[in-house]
Amino acid sequence: MTTAPPEDQRRLLEVQALDTRLQQLAHKRTTLPSIARIAELDAQISDLSTSLVASRTAVSDLKRELTKAEGDVEQVRTRAARDQTRLDSGQVGAKDAQALVGELASLARRQEVLEEVELGVMERLEAHEDALAKLDAANDELLAAKAAVVAERDAELAQLDAEVATVTAARAKAVEGLDAGLVTLYDRLRAQLGGLGAAVLSGRRCGGCRLELNPSDVEIIKAKSPDQVARCEECSRILVRLDA
């Protein structure tokens, strides 16, 4: 049977209150709204990242396609300019001149087709670059929003950590000098029973499980000497008798 001075048993309630506060702070640390908001923003950034990769790839591909289209047009222009120079030189025969005229006409048609292709690529590239610019802007907004929420979270965590340090110090002071056996029992029960190892006996009601004890159990508890540690018959928690 565990015994401890009545005053130590009453002081145990202060330790319990501090432990409960530490438990609340630990829970709050993991359930800050800013943490959920950061997760939400991360999901949005991740989704947008997929679109950004696809858009950047499309722009890169179209730039290569445009470079090729421009090269094809330039190649035709160069050949046409060369043929025109030969034709204008007057140093070719009639048959060769006729062939050059025909080739120039063919090159002109080819150039027209290639320039249309080039224009089409330019238009598609412009559209994709506009889309990419909007995606980049949206991404920048999300990153800025996340940075702001991260700063908010860090400030909240720092505040919580400071309170944890204060409460932890108060807890160490509160448990100082208490009966070792009582503290050992309390810590064991607290670990087993969701953080609540000691509670007040108020009338017939246990402050831990909130159940009313049988009158006979209450009489047994009241009959115990003040230094005997009472336990709840329902939840096994330490019952502190304030009138003991």
UniProtKB/TrEMBL annotation:
This is C4-type zinc ribbon domain-containing protein. PANTHER family: PHOSPHOLIPASE C-BETA-2-RELATED, SCAVENGER RECEPTOR CLASS A MEMBER 3. It comes from Oerskovia merdavium. It comes from the Bacteria. Residues 15-194 form the CT398-like coiled coil hairpin domain. Residues 205-239 form the C4-type zinc ribbon domain.
